[in-house]
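dumping this here so i dont lose it
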């Protein structure tokens, strides 16, 4: 329809001899198109944007889904942040062909049930530009963004315990979460800032556990 723009949707199914188009009525009923239009309305991405991605075209639909998660489920005290990759099949109604697409996102999930409570779709560099706290590393901004979504829905949520992998875990993130009365546990890369030298260059014997404390942060 983008190659044949008309004033409104009804005109594509018009029976007026002056404007009748045979292509669309033979392939799709008007009521079916309206259902798809309102359920999955693609977003117009500016052609001038050099960083735009195909996934952005359904960002409105993803935002709608994301807004509904916490309406039906509030996570327990233990939650986790990780990446998620989902494959789905996209069908083209007019051309009658299908292709597989991959949807990548950062997710906030309940640790006990695995139920997803919030998503942050990955649009490449455009995702990091919209994150909160630009003064922090991206690996810290992602969990804070997802947790802020939870706080916006449940302002009284406190004393949660977040579990992360080594990409997110850092002393900086832990400090920010502590300000929100939040706990953090996770593996960590040894090149993270604010880590003691004994952790950066460990010389541990088998079955030996060493713990370090700095303010309210415990590193093992």
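and the seq i came up w/
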């Amino acid at each position: 329809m983008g190659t044949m723009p008309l004033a409104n949707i009804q005109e594509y199914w018009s029976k007026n001899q002056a404007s009748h188009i045979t292509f669309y009525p033979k392939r799709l009923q008007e009521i079916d198109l309206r259902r798809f239009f309102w359920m999955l309305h693609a977003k117009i991405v500016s052609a001038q944007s050099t960083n735009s991605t195909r996934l952005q075209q359904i960002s409105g639909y993803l935002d709608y889904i994301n807004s509904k998660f916490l309406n039906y489920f509030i996570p327990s005290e233990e939650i986790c942040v990780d990446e998620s990759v989902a494959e789905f099949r996209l069908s083209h109604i007019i051309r009658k062909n299908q292709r597989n697409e991959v949807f990548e996102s950062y997710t906030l999930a309940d640790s006990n049930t695995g139920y997803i409570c919030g998503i942050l779709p990955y649009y490449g560099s455009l995702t990091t530009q919209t994150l909160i706290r630009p003064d922090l590393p991206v690996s810290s901004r992602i969990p804070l963004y997802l947790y802020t979504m939870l706080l916006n829905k449940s302002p009284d949520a406190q004393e949660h315990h977040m579990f992360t992998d080594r990409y997110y875990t850092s002393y900086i993130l832990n400090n920010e979460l502590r300000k929100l009365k939040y706990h953090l546990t996770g593996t960590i890369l040894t090149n993270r800032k604010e880590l003691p030298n004994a952790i950066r260059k460990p010389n541990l014997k088998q079955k030996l556990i060493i713990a370090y404390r700095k303010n309210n942060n415990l590193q093992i």
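The chain has one domain: 40-219.
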